[in-house]
Write a structure and sequence with these properties.
With 240 residues, the protein is an alpha/beta fold. It has eleven helices and five strands. The chain folds into two domains: 38 residues, no CATH class; 155 residues, Rossmann fold (3-Layer(aba) Sandwich), CATH 3.40.50. 40% of the residues lie in helices and 10% in strands.
Length: 240
Amino acid sequence: MARCTAPAQGHRTASGRAACPACGGGHGRYGAYSGYGSYRTSSYPSYSPPTSSGIGRSSVGSSGGSARPRWSRADSSVVYTPAEVQALTPIRRTVETRATAQPDLRDVFLCHAWDDRQGAAKELNDLLVAAGVKVWFSEKDLTLGVPMMRAIDKGLANSRIGLVLVTPALLVRLPKEGIADKELSALLARDQLIPIVHNTTYAKLRDVSPLLGSRSGLDTAEDSMAVVAAKIAELVAIEV
């Protein structure tokens, strides 16, 4: 059997390798390699460094990968980003705690601008109701003859969590300190609030309300309103 001459002659050059009876000509134990020039990094999978959420860019999804929260059903097709799971997990704990202590509460209180009551707010309410969520919504829960602020206070007190639909109309109204601003103040104080940004951005929200803008939530620029409603429905669902 031919013996490699590398210990004595070395293989620092192609000619030295070709002269070796064991390695030259593509034969022997090392014959599968044709020298250092044959090494291809492309034969190895590319590396994506971890993002701030700990998941590389190669993960499934467009916003830093995907994750399944503990409250999501095994057969659910709803996909969450790690950031959404992180933001919604404390809200889920609130839902579970309040559901145990006060099982008759509504699932959510929907805070919105008055101008959106027949548009985006109604669309979100209808999608949530269709998904089995019990919603306090001004268009159906404010009745004639009942003082508005008293009805809203009661709705806030009797809901497990709050949703605030952040739209261009809401951004206009918040600085005027109207009804929506009072609802929002109460929800922020309870630390049970999910912002849902629709047709605007978190950057614009931070310009108007830095406190609300600091909260993480959901965004219809990333998901349709129907998917947002599905995520809320999963979040507030409690097995009985």
